[in-house]
Sequence to fold (528 residues):
Amino acid sequence: MRQSFFYGTVILILAGGVTKLFGFAHRIVLSRIIGAEGMGLYQMVVPLLYFLITVTTFGLPVAIAKQVAETEASKDSRQSRRFLLIALSVACGISLVVCSSLYLFSDWLAGLLFADQRAHVVMLAAIPVIPIASISLVLRGYFQGKQNMIPTAVSQLVEQVARMTVVVIMTVTFLPAGIEYATAGAVGSIIFGELAGLFYVLWQYRRGGRTTASRLLSSKISQSIKASAAHIRQLFKVAVPVTMSRMIGSIAYVLEPMIVPFALVLAGFATSEATGLYGQFAGMAVPLLLFPSFLTNSLSVSLVPAVAEAAYQKNAPLVHRRIYQAMRITLVIGAPCTVLLTIFAEPFCALLYGEQHHTVGILLRELAPFSFFLFFQAPLAAALQGLDLAQVVLRNTLVGAVVKTAAMFLFTSRPEFGIHGTVIAMNIGITLVTLLHFASLIKHIGFSINIWEFAKIGAAMLSMGYAGWYIATYWLDSYSMVGMLVISSGASSALYMILLVAFRILGKQDVKRIPWVGEQLAVFFPRR
Fold:
């Protein structure tokens, strides 16, 4: 079932919000069971896991979304199925090679990659996740290309519910054997989640038409590949630069748990202290920073096929309108998230992680202002990929990763910075890549924004921040932490919404587009 760009985006945002809440609860529960040291081990392996999933999917989810959007625009559903078959064949083949190699050379890889050898057990537990996640991501990309976001949205929810159901049982069961086995049990819960999500997507594909599913299952792989050699080149034209971009990001992510603890040791910290500090940064502060990013990541998933379809039809005004819509939605949603994370960083962390993790709040407060740039990064990259400019995203990502990794070692290894040097490096990387993406969009399609409209949103954002800080500091200083956060966040957010309506940023026609409740809510809003 095809949805409009805005409708599909809202569905993904709603599902992404619930998914993020489950995922964040998963991390909070995990951090309380295995502590900072266990989270350090967890964060050593998870980046490697995501990197290997990036390798096995080979950029195919994005490539399929783009190519299927184009083939559906030309009414060629048969070619869409062929793209899916090729992508599944490639993903399964690479998964087999990667998982076999990882298992056979696990001892050597663990010694090479991890400063703490206890991560070896955690790495072995993560191997089954790779093929399951790869197949699931390819199938989601196929549905996204058809601009049907429901399978992606619901499978994410199913995955997180299944993971949350088993994580405590698996972690506590293995805890007596040691912290590394408890962490391995936590990774094992990911397997159950991925399997549940995959089964749902397969059911949706089967439900979409028994004839379609049987054609896919009965097709001869070699015959299909031979018949569509030109289309394979089209698929790989997008897949290769997307893969390289993600591999660069994943390599930087994999290098991070090696560089940061080593640099902290050089700065004078003990090994266990360095692992704990990195666990606080990567396992506690960064997840909070990334928590609102599901909003713009959901937007970018819808944006790739929407822009690809408009570009295929050579409809330049529609291309510009959809990209501008995405930027506007990103700013309206991202601005209050940046404000709340900045002014309430330490209370949030104290509430979630306990008063003993005071450093986490300081780290988040230093990271939060730059989340403004982070929110724009995924939609800008998606717009470039939809315009067949994936190689530009690759170049920008490479520049950002090199600069961030170098800065991470240089700043973190200095005793006066320590773990705060890691924060500086991350902020530099986020800002640089986002600005490069925006400059590329201006260069290639002459993209522009309404400065006055964006300035009004910025004014609403600053007013919200001041109001939230003032209320928390002068009116609610005697309240409990929970009461202070709820009242001040709610009051400042309400002010932000009022200002958006007063500045005519949000109007009746915008609210009407919201699925299910838009018509009812629109009566309370004026025309823009």
In short: The mean pLDDT is 86.
